[in-house]
């Protein structure tokens, strides 16, 4: 067992020394906004009365990877399948790079493979929350539209 700060954990993930799933990667990117535990505690205490929202990532399968769409993203469905009963599947023959170049409103995690994740967010966070830092684990750069 090893303790690591969020930036250190992301670096360990990038070097493939550890692995965590996309939602945890997203939250570690969010935690990178804070330089200390006391700063995080202060933010959390002040933001807590605002409430929270329920999220359901929606997976979009592209020809060369995946995109987890989150609320606020332009491709996020109006009525996501919260229970899994609808068996909705979103897919496209387009490449991830093309989807990123065509888009303009992002709240997503791009997944090229299990060790290549990237967070892209250019929307205002709800409930006075903090957006994650946009971190990309590979050399692809889709920031031109952000």
UniProtKB/TrEMBL annotation:
GO terms for molecular function: hydrolase activity, acting on acid anhydrides, in phosphorus-containing anhydrides; metal ion binding. Keywords: Hydrolase, Magnesium, Manganese, Metal-binding. InterPro entries: NUDT19. One of its GO terms (cellular component) is mitochondrion. It comes from the Eukaryota. Its cofactor is Mn(2+); Mg(2+). Belongs to the Nudix hydrolase family. PANTHER family: ACYL-COENZYME A DIPHOSPHATASE NUDT19 (PTHR12318:SF0), TESTOSTERONE-REGULATED PROTEIN RP2 (PTHR12318). This is NUD19 protein. It comes from Campylorhamphus procurvoides.
């Amino acid at each position: 067992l090893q303790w690591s700060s969020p930036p250190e954990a992301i670096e360990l993930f990038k070097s493939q020394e550890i692995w965590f799933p996309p939602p945890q990667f997203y939250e570690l990117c969010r935690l990178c906004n804070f330089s200390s535990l006391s700063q995080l505690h202060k933010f959390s205490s002040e933001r807590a009365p605002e409430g929270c929202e329920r999220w359901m990532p929606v997976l979009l399968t592209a020809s060369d990877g995946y995109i987890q769409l989150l609320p606020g993203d332009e491709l996020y469905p109006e009525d996501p399948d919260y229970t899994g009963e609808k068996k909705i599947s979103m897919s496209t023959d387009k490449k991830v790079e093309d989807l990123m170049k065509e888009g303009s409103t992002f709240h997503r995690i791009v997944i090229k493979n299990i060790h290549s994740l990237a967070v892209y967010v250019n929307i205002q966070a709800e409930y006075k929350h903090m957006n994650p830092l946009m971190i990309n684990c590979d050399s692809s750069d889709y920031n031109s539209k952000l």
